[in-house]
Amino acid sequence: MAQNTNQLEVWLRGPLPVVPDLLQPVAHALLQAREEIHILMKDFPEEKLWERPAGVASPAFHLQHLTGVLDRLLTYARGQSLSLEQLDHLTAEGKHAAGISVATLVQAFHEQVEKALEQIKSTKEDTLTEPRGVGRAQIPSTVIGLLVHAAEHTTRHVGQLLVTIRILNSQA
Question: Which InterPro entries match (predicted)?
Answer without folding.
Answer: DinB-like, DinB/YfiT-like
